[in-house]
Write a structure and sequence with these properties.
Blueprint (H helix, E strand, L loop, with lengths): L18 H17 L10 E2 L18 E6 L2 E6 L3 E7 L7 H14 L5 E6 L5 H12 E6 L2 E6 L3 E6 L6
Helix pairs in contact: 2-3
Length: 167
């Protein structure tokens, strides 16, 4: 064997061809972004009622513990201690949230320092009805001169289950 030409394989580094992949990504990303569904969430800040400690509080003479009870046949607005203030019956199966908002405005005028309310609902009440009731309790409209302004009525809302009626 003579020293003839020895072929040496020159190894070149392998290059990955990603042009086709990049073309796919360039087309796919705008398509996915254009078909994406963006949802908007509205969040209400609610507080749950505290567990009763069993100790009776000394009540002030004008202390209002406002409760709004949503039942199948109407909305009952009352004071936890003083009892029922007004009952707003349903008309043809619909709740009268405008009357509720008007009543809340009247109560707010009488007790301007109060900002908390407890909304109690029966288990059969739909979520949509509950949200409409909370909106009517939380804020209202007030005429100020020539303009109508939104005012906070009872923004601190606690939610819970309605007490069962005695048969």
């Amino acid at each position: 064997m003579s020293h003839s030409r020895i072929r040496r394989l020159h190894k070149r580094p392998v290059q990955v061809e990603i042009t086709a992949f990049l073309n796919l990504i360039v087309v796919l990303v705008p398509f996915l972004l254009s078909t994406a569904v963006f949802t908007r969430l509205a969040v209400l800040d609610l507080t749950l009622p505290a567990q009763s400690s069993g100790v009776l509080e000394k009540l002030k003479e004008n202390d209002l513990k406002l409760e709004v009870v949503v039942r199948q046949d109407g909305i009952e607005v009352g004071d936890r201690i003083g009892g029922l203030i007004q009952r707003i019956p349903t008309t043809e199966g619909a709740y009268d949230v405008k009357a509720l908002s008007l009543l809340m405005t009247q109560i707010k005028e009488r007790f301007p320092d109060k900002s908390d309310v407890t909304v109690l609902a029966e288990p059969s009440i739909s979520y949509d009805v509950l949200v409409h009731v909370m909106d009517a309790v939380r804020s209202g409209r007030q005429v100020q001169g020539a303009t109508i302004a939104h005012v906070d009525l009872f923004p601190e809302i606690s939610v819970g289950d309605a007490p069962i009626r005695a048969p």
